[in-house]
Design a protein that fits this description.
Helix content is 21%, strand content 31%. It is an alpha+beta fold. Strand 2 (11-13) and strand 3 form a beta hairpin. Helix 2 (72-81) runs antiparallel to helix 3 (92-103). The N and C termini lie far apart (40 Å).
Length: 217
Amino acid sequence: MKQFKVTEQLLLKNGELLCKKPSGRSMQKAHFRQGDLDGACGVYSIAMLLNILGVFEAEEMNSNSDGDARYAEWKLINALNKYGLYREGLRSDEIQEILTKTYSKYVNVQVANKEDHDLIELVQNCIDKNIPTILGFNYDNKNSHWVVAVGYAVDENDNLTAILTLDPGNDSHKYSMWNGIIDLPKVPRKKYGYIYNSNQQSMVDIDEIIIITTKQA
């Protein structure tokens, strides 16, 4: 029987995916969907992951207040708002730079690529430690996407069969804590050999992951 492992920070309640606020005393929305015209999947993935880790309230980004620029939260919000629609998207080095400059008080950031790491094994190890990761994949030479890996599936022999993701390009599901699935293993001898199922099925290549961990108080 297939089994699913999802990071413990997520809670599905009355069809809504939630996680704890930084105070730990109340819950907040865990999934955010990007607009149809922007390339801000990296921004939404950052916001979702920091929400899940309990060190950020992404809904503050919709506040009419300018906020206090002395605080890390508003430094981050201002940095994420800097490029408007992000039509060209965000690279991993830009994500790392934004978080290092604005939010290093709360988190550590590490980028791992497929040339130097077994990314699937690394994602599984992170999920086992309740560390969601930002996962980057390519559809082709021109189009790429960021999602948040929040869990995985194994078969009856404990063989890894899928990575479970929160995709900012799609709505939340009412019945599961993920809305995207990367099927494993990779199709042999194909660059874009991973089958990714979200609102449609695509063939992708997993290129890199961004591991964000909270700093101990």
